[in-house]
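REVIEWER CHECKLIST
Item 1: Sequence provided? yes
Item 2: Single chain? yes
Item 3: Sequence as submitted:
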Amino acid sequence: MNDSTPRGFGDEVRAILASQRVSVRALARRTNYDHAYLSRVLAGKQRPSRDMVEAIDAQLGAEGQLTALSSSHTPDTEERLVKATNVPRRLDVSAVESLANILTQQRRLEDAIGSAPLLEPVKSQLATVSELVSGARGSIRNSIVDVASQWAQFAGWLHTSSKSDDHGFYDQALSLAMECGNDAMVSTALNMKSHKEWVRGNPAPIVGLSQAAQRHGTPGVRAMAAQQEARGHALANDADETERCLDNAESLIEQAIEHPESEPPWVYFYSLDYLQMQRARAYMYLGYHESAAHLLSTSLDALPDEQKHTEWTAWYKVDLAKLYRHLHATELAEKVLEEVQTVASTTQSSRLEHQAQHLKKAFGDW
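Item 4: Structure as written out by the authors:
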């Protein structure tokens, strides 16, 4: 087992290759490695050298994600994880920490390649982690339940992003978070259930679930719930409550910025610029199209370069394209829509592609 590739490394590389439409043979040629050797590495039959991992990471533009994923697994760590899977009572602290590190890298990788390529690997990993939970006893149980709750939430997010439904993963995350006492994840799971209702267009449960989410967690987590509540009020055309919630979210984010060490790892993307995008979306629902377009275009431009072409950012560009079309800025609307289609193709997001095609047809019929 010590000679095997780190769990998930080959899957991640293949997912990126598929999203970029690059073959394994082409990657071998670009990195100056033997095709057969690279194939064995990606199949999990041989461990890659650090130089190889760094070369692949650089060629695929993974910005250190693959390097970090590989380095989080040493042969000793891999052996502990396998033993833990086979004999849950031998699960140790190092194995749990390694699992948490893997999940952190998965979240970052989603920014680069989108939700669709990661969905099945993450569901498979969650099944393994769930096996560890079922057999865990004693003091280690709380730690592995905590990690499992975070994995279930991420699986729910990926499922909702690519298929419009969480497949029950948010309920699983909520149950696990309540068992281990992770208030931040309790809040996040409730807020994700609110997000699911937003996807369905149901204002009342959006508001109710996001209000419940604000009873738990850190300022950053509660800020996400407050802006989600604002969406619900905006959909119900309640401008005063919308502004109140957005102002509350801004205050909470400022608190989170003062103490970033207290925030959980899954809110790494949240910022005042991100909140401006939420404000823009709420204003769009309220019919403030000009203000919404200005806020959204400005906040999208202010995002870090690595976030500007992600799948989740593309959904805000969908909104921006709609706003430009409402304002009769046809050329700008078409330009933004082209960017959305590029991201949909790169990330293999059928849901995003469907939305882009729908808008393209709607613009043509306008």
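Item 5: Key structural point noted by reviewer: Residues 1-7, 80-89 have pLDDT under 50 and may be disordered.
Item 6: Recommendation: ____
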